[in-house]
Design brief:
Layout: E1 13-15, E2 18-20, E3 23-25, H1 27-34, H2 40-43, E4 53-56, H3 59-72, H4 82-94, E5 99-101, H5 107-117, H6 121-133, E6 136-139, H7 142-149, E7 157-159
Parallel strand pairs: 3-4, 3-6, 4-5, 6-7
Antiparallel strand pairs: 1-2
Helix pairs in contact: 1-3, 3-4, 5-6
Length: 164
């Protein structure tokens, strides 16, 4: 068990003798699985067989919104076709890679956490799920990561470039 883990923080399983925690996949990481970016390979570490992946069911909505921004982008390097964006949106929605959890029971703790760490309610939902599952939010969103690290919930976050 890593230092700084809260009391009762128990690994969900063990892979090759190494503790494996449930990973709460942030939209910023899942997006990199489907849209090639310079650091997509690091995000894809979290697709490894045997890892337990979860997310609030708002991930497909957030991911689709990010896809829409790419469709509307005037930067030809970032731009996606509408057809590609629609295909990826369907993959977000139907993904067998992540177990989705309803946002409804996460609203109250998510709001409280968002207020506490100075994040959005959306980010608070990911952190609330990580705490509920005794897992770790895996994120490529540096400001969100840093807000969690600076809080009393620092053991519930993992930077996406760090191996699972």
């Amino acid at each position: 068990m890593s230092q700084g883990a809260p009391a009762g923080f128990v690994p969900a399983s063990t892979i090759n003798g190494t503790p494996s925690f449930p990973y709460i996949i942030d939209t910023s990481v899942a997006f990199k699985w489907y849209v090639p970016e310079s650091d997509s390979a690091e995000a894809q570490q979290y697709l490894r067989v045997g890892l337990e992946r979860h997310a609030p069911d708002l991930l497909p909505l957030e991911g689709t919104h990010a896809l829409l921004k790419r469709v509307r982008s005037t930067n030809p390097v970032l731009r996606l076709t509408a057809r590609d964006a629609e295909r990826i949106a369907t993959e977000f929605r139907d993904s067998p890679l992540i177990k989705y959890h309803s946002c409804i029971p996460l609203l109250e703790p998510g709001m409280a956490l968002a207020i506490e760490i100075g994040a959005s309610v959306y980010d608070g939902l990911f952190l609330a799920l990580a705490i509920e599952k005794k897992g770790r939010v895996v994120t490529a969103d540096r400001p969100f990561h840093d807000k969690i690290v600076a809080s009393s919930h620092s053991s519930f976050v993992r930077w996406f470039m760090d191996a699972p």
